[in-house]
From TrEMBL:
Molecular function terms, GO-annotated: ATP binding; ATP hydrolysis activity
Span of domain ATPase AAA-type core: 17-136
Signal peptide: none
Protein name as annotated: ATPase AAA-type core domain-containing protein
Organism taxonomic ancestry: Eukaryota, Viridiplantae, Streptophyta, Embryophyta, Tracheophyta
Gene3D superfamilies per UniProt: P-loop containing nucleotide triphosphate hydrolases
Organism from which the protein derives: Salvia splendens (Scarlet sage)
Pfam hit, one: AAA
Length: 163
């Protein structure tokens, strides 16, 4: 029975994130932690081992519902013409659109070192919902982390300015 004004369709949850920052800022660790927290399976797609768009789309079909699809170092494949991968911006745009149009609950996370020189069509809202910068940890960040996660509010090192 349908209720007037009510949609009988099911809305599935999909989000796409971009994590960017220098190497060593723990972007990959964040991906693993997010998947663990949500109890999602993680699928790491290594674009350097994918030969063409058909293979990339085939891999997407093999993923299950409630999964996190991670594509690391995206900037290597879309900004470097010397890349040995056959994956290009057009192929990635089609892949991202298929992710968004799939009927399963999926989260996709792309990582890159820098957004400089990247085709804006790849980064636009609707393809990538949120851009999160991962800066290197400085002393102020360390103090914040130690306060939030270890409960350390005051410490003798807090007065040291040049660490």
């Amino acid at each position: 029975m349908r209720v007037a004004g009510m949609c009988s369709c099911i809305r599935v949850w999909k989000r796409c994130y971009l994590l960017y920052g220098q190497s060593g800022t723990r972007k990959s660790s964040f991906i693993a932690a997010a998947a663990n927290l949500l109890s999602y399976d993680v699928y790491y797609l290594n674009l350097s081992q994918i030969t063409d768009a058909d293979e990339l789309n085939s891999l997407l079909i093999q993923t299950m519902s409630k999964s996190l699809i991670a594509v690391e170092d995206l900037d290597r494949y879309v900004s470097d013409s010397r890349s040995s991968s056959r994956i290009n911006s057009s192929c990635l745009l089609n892949f991202m659109d298929r992710l968004l149009n799939s009927q399963d609950e999926r989260i996709s996370i792309f990582t890159m070192n820098s957004k400089d020189g990247i085709d804006l069509a790849l980064l636009r809202p609707g393809r990538i919902d949120m851009h999160i910068h991962f800066p290197l940890c400085n002393f102020a960040s360390f103090k914040n982390l130690s306060s939030n996660y270890l409960g350390v509010k005051e410490h003798k090192l807090n007065s040291v300015k040049n660490l």
